[in-house]
Protein 1
Amino acid sequence: MGNAAKYLAGATVEPLSSDYTLTLDQSALAKGLAKITVTKPQAMQARRAMRTGVQDTDYNYVSELGYLIITIPANAASDSELKCTVTQGSYTVADGTETGTTYTFSGTEKVVPMTASYQLTCEQAIAGMPAELTVTDADGKPISRAVIYQVNSDGSQKLGSTNMKGTFTKTFDTAGEYTFYAEKAGSGRSWNQRVIVCERTAENDGKPFGISPTA
């Protein structure tokens, strides 16, 4: 996925618990960078205890602090991957001095395959004949009441919803290439699916013919 600034537009952060506060630098987003500052509320600062004249500090280390939430573009391809790298980071440890000790770190590139909640398929489409668009989940189960949209140059047009079998029937007037997607409120959407509609033949009223079963 290129153009990081485009995908980071409108990004937000969400902490996993109230123990930490996450702040996202909005000015860095325009440069294609997600700069996140993590702080711990004063009431949750590491406890200090005095033992035999030596100051001991109790630290709690966690591997996950929260989420960076971005918007995946609607026209992303089904084989898209999200690539991200922690180019630079730092943290400060309280050690009894006025400013503490600051350490820096970086990370290697991470590749995250992107998935869609639903799959939209169309086995065969011939101009002038009914074609079925089918919506299923990751386990192949049909999804009813999923709304089917057709993508046009000026936006998306709502066509209708799938039935209990997860299908929606549409008759194409002309041959060509069309793009659709399925969406169900509150539960996700499918990738954009390209459908090739073939010309209807003059023979046998456009229906397949000359097919013989084989053993």
Note: The radius of gyration is 27 Å.
Protein 2
Amino acid sequence: MGEQLERSWLAFTNAPFLFLGAVLALGLLAWAVIHFLYRNRIEALKEELDRERRENARLGSQASPVEPTNARVRSAAAVALMDKSSASEVTVKRKLRDSRVFLRPEVTPSLLLSFYEGRPAHQGNKMGEPYLGKWMRVSGRVKNVHSRGKRGWSVVMEREDLGLSHGNLAIQFERDEAPVVETLNLGDRISAEGRLEKLEPFWIWLDGGRLVE
């Protein structure tokens, strides 16, 4: 009877320790399971990220050669647009040249300045109005060359070569004629076309000048 009571007492006093041991064992088991699942999840995420990086690198290496092609396409398009613009500009200039109205051959520089002989300047201007805006061709030697800055160049012709006893004729050339006009020397013989812009008692002004053969 005493031994039974002693065993019962020991079982009673050890019960809390057994319970705590069971709880600790369950806790350790749960921690081990959670740690295992967490580690597996981390490994899966790493593999997924590595896959995405490899895929992005592969796509990047395939896409990189396309960029120069696109650049060439854009460059070709820009060149085509410039060529089209240049062609349009040339077409417009050609149409403008074709639409020019030239003065009759008998309307010479000498005739134009004769409008001011024995008359007030305003009367000579009135007589010259019908001729303004029309084109004329002149040939002769260069008397002088002047730069007009961004507006181009101006060439004064020798009056004797134009049949003038007095006065002068100046041709104002466009900027694109500068490479040739700026190299002209005094005495060089040229032929040019220009639009009659202004008449004065001692000056004839031609604008839009173009050198011709």
Note: The chain has five helices and five strands.
Protein 3
Amino acid sequence: MLYRLLLCSSKFLKNLFLKKYFYAIIPIREEEEIQVGGFTQMADWPSFKPLPFFSGCHIQTIAGMFFSFGESPPSITRFVHLPDGEKTTMEITTPEGWKESDPTVVMVHGLCGDHFSPYMVRLANRLSDVGIRSIRINLRGCGTARGHSRKMYAPDSSDDIWKALEEIKRDTPYSPLTLAGFSLGGNIVLKMAGERGAAAEILLEQVIAVNPPIDLYSSVALLSAEKIYDNHFMKYLREDLDFRHSYYDDLPPIELPRKMTTMEFDEFYLAPQAGYDSVTEYFRASSCGPHIPHIEVPCKILISKDDPIVDYTLFEPVPFPEKVELVMTEKGGHLGYLALPSKESGVRWMDDLFMKWVG
């Protein structure tokens, strides 16, 4: 029944079952997590075993995005005033009975996301259920921050996140902070942690990154080559750009070519906006990979070998510092991880692992 529902849910999902993607729904042998970089694997946590008929990377990625239910928890919107005069927002969900000495989890969304992104909503609800405050940061112009920033958010938004953390810590100095980023948000939080080095420990207890693209040129190239993803993200990037250039009088009208990939968009718009002469230079400056060796705060990274957007082999040459733990699964796609339920973990294996890490 669920399989039939998936087939019929939308035209977007049906594209998965074209000949190009047919292999993605064929069940394959389930593998254990592998050890990477000499780090200890999770002996007390079940390995990821894909949900039957959901073994392929594309079906994990897209079903993980669409099959997410539940309303966004109540939150208070707070503005973060950035050094360049623009603003972004935080959505703060404080569970009943929370004290200022209790933990807080700060989350950063991915490309074309916001505080309503399914994984952000699911985890905010789960955190609230166990008495942990959650703060969902909207990158510039996203969610409730729309209309408060002329600039489009970018992978180099690490200073914006640091500014938000400073404000959170100033207001609740005794609340231990966990910073988590998903996909592009994962790149941003890892870059920030590496840039700040030991100073990050002043604000943070730990950092968590899920499916972070540590080499942005590689990931955008992979995304642009897969039309099912490229068309999806370009739709929202076009809408965002159209809004900004119609909302702000000082931004000139702009019209993108009808056929444009995400890579071309970054080269045409984002790189020049950020002050770079080329998209290669822009991606090099914005990628977290070179900063990971300088991370000094406890950090956990989750990736999958079949991620269609993030090439796992790029993690292998990275010299991970002692406090960084990398967990790699054979399957899971990109923010998917729909699992065969076990005693310790339900269908949402990623969410269950995240809650374990948060403690």
Note: The CA atoms of residues 188 and 358 lie 19 Å apart.
